[in-house]
């Protein structure tokens, strides 16, 4: 049976709906308005004075379901778009190949992203859905919604559902109203932030409730996945692990029990590494894993930009506050809350000397620690990739939630802090209205191009390539055009990143050139495409003797479309 094409079906369904942009705006306004009302309801309404029916309407399951709907209502138009990010193209192409050959690092190489970023993208195939842009972005949205649910329960365990719901508002609005391509494509941050959100939820659970060694082991197993998703997230994972270990220390009954918990944590941390080692031995891919993943991560995150940390931080501030990204609201709210909290907490601790004894105040320092480490993770590489900012969304939201939670505790017996609580609600409402208005008033960039997307669904280049290949054939692309794998539906005959690393001044250039040539010979790909033919001569395949020899002996040029040369196996 032919795989269901989600993106094409959506485009066909809405092609001629002339009033769709206005319908989208109206429905999004209604959904977000109801979401904000549900989020504020426990704070505004007195549960003892409202009916059971109203209680059910404002219940937690309804709120969480509407939270997912609020994100989907804002983000579904991105499912219509073709290629919007080269990393996403690489991940989708890798997922297509993994269906054919499950031996990661032998069949695919996705640069600094590990297998856990790619494996979820193969799930649509199990449901007979085509692996493409739309299916990948659905997986990304699912991971975002899952992360938001973990985030909500983290704050609910620490405080209550009032605090958790209010703190969820800026996080949900960020994801629902994001338009920039770096925030809406399936990125290498989606799975890592799900890992970190789950770990934070378990940290709050262990702090506030009785727990068993099973929970400690599960925490370790979840955090232990990070190296196989994205190495960049390791510092944040380490920060949360240190917090978790500190909580184990504060709750210990004896030194022996604490050491036992640490041993259980260590076993959990090693679980996924043991699984990975098993598969490396099974598929004989340890050398590829070490050279293509471990060493390349060290190289990528080295100080290649030759900038000082201060210069990198300045770049980060400019990026985070950029109006072009429409992400500044969340970070501005975080800054306001942090400054206000510092003043209020200092005042309380100096005047009353009580604040430092609240049983959750330690999380103010924990959350600050996580935010600082997350900022370091974004700043350290020195690359202005806006999708790195996704690492900051939940740490900022958690800091906001902790500040709100502490202020709510202070407001129980203090008129001054009751006024502060009221101001918090006003700030959330104002921020919600402002951010929603600024984005909803403008035309959605992906929705407005739906007819063009349908007309260009299969480009002349793709149609030409498909004349020379059947759906079961593989294709090899020389050049950073992984979108050709997705749009033709032909799986890649070479490892994805090998060509890129061979082209752009990589110290291991010779190794990756040989890898590309060997993969091409082994796969016997029906079609070879030189996507660099229209670029400088030094980047074309025939400028590299190792590749030129393979192509000359095994392929013949049959066509050229838009400066891209197409070769077919002899």
Structure description:
The structure is a single chain. The radius of gyration is 26 Å and the shape is globular. Helix content is 65%, strand content 4%. A hairpin with a 2-residue loop joins strand 4 and strand 5 (564-569). The chain has helices at 6-14, 20-44, 52-57, 60-75, 86-100, 115-118, 123-126, 133-158, 161-177, 181-184, 190-208, 213-223, 234-250, 255-283, 286-300, 309-320, 328-351, 362-379, 390-411, 415-440, 450-455, 460-466, 483-488, 498-503, 509-523, 545-554, and strands at 474-478, 491-492, 527-530, 555-561, 564-569. It is mainly alpha-helical.
* Structural class estimated from helices and strands: mainly alpha
Termini distance?
A: 31 Å
Strand order of the largest sheet: 2-1-3-5-4
Please give the share of residues in helix: 55-70%
Shape: globular
Topology summary:
Layout: H1 6-14, H2 20-44, H3 52-57, H4 60-75, H5 86-100, H6 115-118, H7 123-126, H8 133-158, H9 161-177, H10 181-184, H11 190-208, H12 213-223, H13 234-250, H14 255-283, H15 286-300, H16 309-320, H17 328-351, H18 362-379, H19 390-411, H20 415-440, H21 450-455, H22 460-466, E1 474-478, H23 483-488, E2 491-492, H24 498-503, H25 509-523, E3 527-530, H26 545-554, E4 555-561, E5 564-569
Helix pairs in contact: 2-4, 2-9, 2-20, 4-8, 4-9, 8-9, 8-11, 8-19, 9-19, 9-20, 11-12, 11-13, 12-14, 13-18, 17-19, 18-19, 19-20
């Amino acid at each position: 049976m032919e795989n269901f094409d989600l993106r094409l079906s959506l485009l066909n369904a809405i092609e001629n709906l002339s009033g769709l942009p206005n319908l989208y705006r109206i429905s999004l306004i209604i959904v977000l308005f109801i979401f904000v009302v549900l989020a504020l309801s426990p704070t505004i309404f007195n549960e003892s004075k409202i009916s059971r029916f109203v209680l059910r309407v404002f219940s937690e399951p309804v709120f969480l379901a509407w939270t997912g709907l609020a994100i989907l209502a804002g983000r579904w138009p991105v499912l219509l778009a073709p290629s919007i990010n080269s990393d996403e193209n690489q991940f989708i192409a890798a997922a297509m190949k993994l269906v054919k050959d499950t031996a990661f690092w032998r069949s695919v190489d996705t640069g600094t992203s590990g297998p856990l970023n790619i494996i979820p993208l193969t799930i649509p195939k199990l449901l007979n859905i085509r692996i493409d842009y739309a299916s990948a972005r659905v997986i990304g949205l699912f991971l975002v919604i899952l992360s938001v649910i973990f985030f909500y329960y983290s704050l609910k365990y620490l405080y209550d559902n009032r605090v958790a719901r209010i703190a969820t508002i800026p996080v949900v609005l960020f994801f629902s109203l994001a338009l920039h391509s770096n925030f809406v494509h399936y990125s290498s941050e989606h799975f890592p932030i799900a890992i970190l959100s789950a770990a934070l939820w378990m940290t709050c659970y262990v702090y506030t409730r009785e727990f068993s060694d099973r929970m400690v082991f599960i925490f370790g197993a979840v955090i232990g996945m990070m190296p196989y998703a994205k190495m960049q997230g390791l510092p944040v994972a380490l920060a949360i692990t240190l917090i978790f270990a500190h909580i184990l220390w504060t709750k210990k009954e004896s030194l022996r029990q604490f050491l036992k918990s640490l041993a259980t944590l260590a076993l959990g941390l090693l679980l996924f590494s043991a699984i990975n080692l098993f598969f490396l031995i099974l598929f004989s891919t340890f050398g590829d894993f070490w050279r293509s993943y471990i060493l390349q991560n060290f190289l990528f995150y080295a100080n290649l930009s030759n900038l000082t940390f201060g210069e990198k931080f300045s770049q980060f501030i400019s990026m985070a506050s950029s109006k072009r990204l429409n992400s500044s609201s969340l970070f501005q709210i975080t800054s306001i809350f942090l400054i206000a909290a510092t003043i209020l907490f200092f005042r309380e601790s100096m005047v009353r000397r009580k604040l430092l004894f609240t049983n959750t105040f330690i999380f103010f320092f924990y959350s600050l620690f996580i935010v600082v480490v997350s900022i370091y993770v974004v700043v350290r590489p020195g690359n202005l990739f806006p999708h790195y900012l996704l690492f900051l969304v939940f740490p900022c939201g958690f800091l906001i939630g902790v500040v709100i939670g502490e202020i709510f505790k202070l407001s129980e017996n203090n008129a001054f802090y009751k006024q502060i609580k009221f101001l918090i609600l006003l700030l959330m409402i104002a921020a919600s209205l402002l951010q929603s208005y600024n984005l909803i008033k403008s035309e959605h960039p992906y929705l407005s191009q739906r007819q063009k997307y349908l007309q260009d669904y299969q480009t002349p280049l793709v149609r030409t390539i498909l004349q020379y290949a059947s759906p079961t054939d593989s294709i090899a692309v020389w050049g950073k055009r992984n979108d050709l794998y997705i749009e033709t539906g032909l799986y890649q005959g070479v490892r994805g990143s090998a060509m890129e690393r061979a082209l752009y001044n990589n110290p291991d250039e010779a190794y990756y050139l040989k890898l590309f040539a060997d993969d091409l010979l082994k796969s016997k790909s029906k079609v070879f495409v030189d996507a660099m033919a229209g670029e400088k001569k030094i980047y074309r395949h025939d400028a590299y003797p190792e590749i030129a020899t393979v192509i000359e002996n095994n392929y013949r040029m049959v066509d050229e479309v838009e400066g891209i040369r197409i070769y077919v196996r002899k």
